[in-house]
Amino acid sequence: MTKDQTRETPNQSLVASPKVDEAMSALMTEARLAARWSDLSPDVRAAHHRILRAYIADGAPPNISEFSTEIRGELSRRDLVHIRDGKIALAYPFSTAVTDFAVRAAGVEMHAICAIDALGVAAMIQHETKVTCLCPVCRAPMALTIAADGLTMTNVTDPTARVWTGVMEVGSCAADSQCTSMRMFCSPEHLEVWRSDRPGMRGFDLTLEEGVQLGAEIFRAFLREPAEPGPEAVDT
Ligand SMILES: [Zn+2]
To answer: Which residues fall inside 5 Å of ion ligand 1, going by CB?
Structure first.
């Protein structure tokens, strides 16, 4: 695969690992993709992009007063942006509140909702990011740099880290369900410790590289302009 193909084509056929392909299908079902992206109006898409770009530029969302009630409702119904206490609380992959998943790009610090979201930011913004996640068991920080291609990893502090991607019923807000089970662990042992407290939980135990691939697959098309193939054009 050439870098050009990677950049221009967001479909899952580029995924190197079959496990990532399987995880992608489990997480991003056709129904969920359709609920998010089908018939997205230009106004709603522009508002969505405006919100994401504010997080990227400032590490914080814009004021909700910039957006009409109708647009806010539409973004929320599509599980793209959620407003709490009169403020934008999250817009995947970003969280307004500080989380265990920090992303630094072009001198701006952002926080992601979960590990997969943090790992997908580089692909979405086509810019190098430094991702730092905390192990939920021992709170040890793990860092890596992801290149602007969204896939190439360098400066990996914990090459044996694992990324757990839980598969849960997603209600109206993935951040409250799915995302709570997407974590990065300092070691296979600490993933096992965490999983032993959650018997029966479904999910995928991914390497760091697979986690980056999955994040890139999910977020690569989020900031595409309408003239380009958007997330709704992803082949499934
Ligand atoms: Zn740990």
So the answer is: 135, 137-138, 140, 186, 190
